[in-house]
Design a protein that fits this description.
Order of helices and strands: HHEEEEEEEEEEEEEEEEEEEEE
Radius of gyration: 19 Å
Number of strands: 21
Distance between the termini: 37 Å
Shape: globular
Number of helices: 2
Structural class: mainly beta
Length: about 290
């Protein structure tokens, strides 16, 4: 009788937990199980939280976007109010604040090497190329190389994520929603023969928006972060979903849902980092 009671209690708990999940998150968990041990994938199921919901001291709100600088072994992020770029340690400590002008709404940043960064201005649908070295304290967007990507469809629904393939020198830039879109931009780094194409969106049915991107170079896979759907998709070069990671309570060691995940990146040891508004820092490592 006791064993039966325990089994019924566990079943009730399981139903309660599933009931708190959206259909997208349940599908994500199914994908996670189906892709276990799939070769040449990140195996997102193996990631576990090691720094959970840490407030970044010195930042009050609007922490958004994230990129890894392998040369400084630090992280860079953006704030959109006021428009600012910040440098963070791998433990979520604020190291530096860089002010900007001429960039109205910096919602994404991506390191491309040699002290060069791409910055996305969401509201104006622009990409800008900036140099940030140890001495940089101010970035003037008016003087930077820049280009427009896509068309502004709705207020505050523009460019929201950036990723970079260093082998092909391809920039991936995502439109947040209405419609969900990922653009592939080539030629902007070299400033010649610039082309912009759209990725096939057959995987986007799982997402209500895109809030961040990261390109995993070893497998040529794209990680797609969704704030509203609370998950990460791993998308292969053929646009097939090969992994999924729900960012919800009771998954990957999380004690609560990640409320508003806005930025994602990985370091050269395959640790995974997420920042969320207003000022929260997360780090995941493989078990």
């Amino acid at each position: 009788m006791l064993l039966r009671a325990i089994q019924l209690s566990l079943l009730s708990l399981s139903i309660l937990i599933v009931g708190c999940q959206t259909q997208q998150q349940q599908t994500c968990l199914q994908i996670q199980q189906q892709t276990l041990n799939l070769p040449n994938t990140l195996q997102l199921a193996d990631y576990h939280i090691v720094i959970n919901k840490k407030p970044v001291k010195g930042i009050a709100s609007n922490l958004s976007a994230l990129t890894w600088n392998q040369d400084t072994q630090t992280l860079f992020a953006t704030l959109n109010k006021p428009p600012t770029i910040v440098e963070l340690s791998t433990t979520g400590e604020l190291l530096r604040i860089i002010t900007t002008k001429g960039i109205r709404d910096p919602e994404a940043i991506e390191y491309i090497g040699n002290n060069q960064f791409i910055i996305a201005d969401e509201r104006h649908h622009k990409l800008l190329k900036a140099t940030i070295d140890k001495q940089t304290t101010l970035i003037d967007g008016h003087s930077l190389p820049q280009m427009k990507v896509g068309e502004v469809q709705k207020f505050n629904k523009g460019l929201e994520g950036l990723a970079y393939n260093s082998e092909s020198k391809t920039i991936y830039a995502s439109n947040e929603s209405d419609p969900i879109t990922i653009y592939k931009v080539t030629g902007f780094i070299e400033n010649q023969n610039i082309t912009v194409t759209e990725l096939n969106r057959n995987w986007s049915l799982l997402l209500d928006d895109i809030s961040g991107l990261h390109f995993y170079q070893p497998y040529q896979h794209l990680l797609v972060l969704s704030d509203e759907s609370k998950l990460i998709l791993e998308v292969a070069a053929d646009n097939q979903i090969v992994g999924c990671m729900p960012l919800i309570r009771n998954q990957h060691g999380l004690l609560s849902n990640i409320r508003q995940p806005e930025g994602i990146t990985m370091d050269d040891k395959d640790n995974l980092y997420i920042v969320s508004e207003p000022n929260l820092f997360y780090k995941f490592s493989k078990k």
